[in-house]
Design a protein that fits this description.
Oligomer: single chain
Number of helices: 11
Distance between the termini: 14 Å
CATH class of the largest domain: Alpha Beta
Shape: globular
Low-confidence stretches: none
CATH architecture of the largest domain: 3-Layer(aba) Sandwich
Mean pLDDT: 97
CATH topology of the largest domain: Aspartate Aminotransferase, domain 2
CATH superfamily of the largest domain: Type I PLP-dependent aspartate aminotransferase-like (Major domain)
Order of helices and strands: HHHEHEHEEHEEEEEHHEEHHEH
């Protein structure tokens, strides 16, 4: 192994350096305007994200978590309602359902894509089901056509958890443009990340979009006259200004991630490690590689070797939601959703950010090969 420097899982400093002056100018622009909540920066970002995501409407909110929460509030989810989703995801997916008194109903994943398996959804529908919430995990969209067909048959809403998937595509359609809502996160580690928390809701229906816009600002229209009980879910103008700059670079950064994914495939093929399962790209998808996930039955040994070489890595997610302590009352047991449980035990994220060099990737694969030697 020739490369000896530490390799982080994500290097935001490397991303920031080329755009530093643009970002500082955006800070100054907002500071000079003294318009910190809503306003032209937020409205500009909403229009730009809507266009990028092929949607007529976008509503800026405080985080990806609050995007999910507001979407659920918009369709009137109430205690006792059931929302079908995946257990192999970040906690917010299930947590937002529970916060409204509704019940997350977990359906197992397709082990190849790690996304919800549409073939298992219909059996989980009951008279209490209000919506399906597929998650476009790791930057690849779920199989949306059968999900939308099931939703249409049963008169259900579809809320796309697209927190990791801005710009990903399914049969030519962008994440967030197919369901009733798309919910995006601008957490700093995302492909389009802010300088803190931020999120966005996309929608196709004007009435739903308007209701979501009211709910993010205490349900007020006009000011001090409240049609609904909402909350403070407003996006900061400073975050919007930074995100508008970064959005212009997003496709280039995505191309870098895709290039690095292809390099990993070549390097792993050359290394000949039979046990390593690499990410699959389903047909007619644009995978944006928010994460590059490998699967290995020797994860602990691989992680130990990566740590020894100071190479960043992460387990997404070590405990699926149906086995989390806070959801114990839902009655799921180990073995009830086996593909999600196996993924939690075997998957590992490797660095994939666009500034990663081939020399660094070769060092990462070499370290993994050492774990098998």
């Amino acid at each position: 192994m020739s490369y000896t420097q530490p390799i982080p899982l994500l290097d935001l400093k490397a991303q920031y350096a080329p755009i530093r002056e643009e970002c500082r100018a955006a800070f100054d622009r907002v500071a000079d305007a003294q318009y910190f909540i809503g306003g032209p920066e937020v409205e500009g970002l909403e229009k730009e994200v809507a266009a990028y995501s092929q949607c007529p409407f976008a509503i800026g909110v405080t985080s990806g978590t609050d995007a999910l929460l507001v979407a659920l509030m918009t369709i009137g989810v109430k205690p006792g309602d059931e929302i079908i989703t995946t257990p192999y995801t970040f906690f917010a997916t299930g947590g937002c359902i529970h916060r409204l008194g509704a019940v997350p109903v977990f359906v197992d994943i397709d082990p190849a894509s790690y996304n919800i398996d549409p073939a298992l959804i219909e059996a989980a529908i009951t008279p209490k089901t209000r919506a399906i919430m597929p998650v476009h995990l790791y930057g690849q969209m779920a199989d949306m056509d059968p999900i939308m067909a099931i939703a249409a048959r049963h008169n259900l809403y579809v809320i796309e958890d697209a927190a990791q998937a801005i710009g990903s595509e399914y049969r030519g359609r962008r994440a967030g443009s197919i369901g009733h809502f798309g919910c995006f996160s601008f957490f700093p580690s995302k492909n389009l990340g802010g300088f803190g928390d931020g999120g966005m809701i996309t929608a196709n229906d004007p009435a739903l979009a308007h209701r979501a816009k009211l709910l993010r600002n205490h349900g007020a229209e006009p000011k001090y006259y409240h049609k609904l009980v909402g909350g403070n879910f407003r996006l900061d103008a400073l975050q919007a200004a930074i995100l508008r700059i970064k959005l212009r670079y997003l496709d280039g950064w995505t191309a870098g991630r895709q290039r690095n994914a292809a390099t990993y495939r070549r390097l792993f093929a050359q290394a000949g490690i039979a046990d390593i399962v690499l990410p699959t790209e389903a047909p007619e998808r644009r995978h944006i590689y928010n994460q590059f996930i490998i699967r290995t039955t020797r994860r602990d040994a691989v992680m130990a070797r990566l740590k020894e070489h100071k190479i960043g890595h992460e387990i997404y997610y070590p405990v699926p939601l149906h086995l989390q302590e806070c959801f114990a009352d839902l009655g799921y047991k180990p073995g009830s959703l086996p593909h999600s449980e196996q993924a939690a035990l075997q998957t590992l994220a490797l660095p994939i950010y666009p500034e990663l060099t081939e020399e660094m990737q070769a060092a990462i694969v070499s370290a993994i090969a050492e774990a098998y030697a």
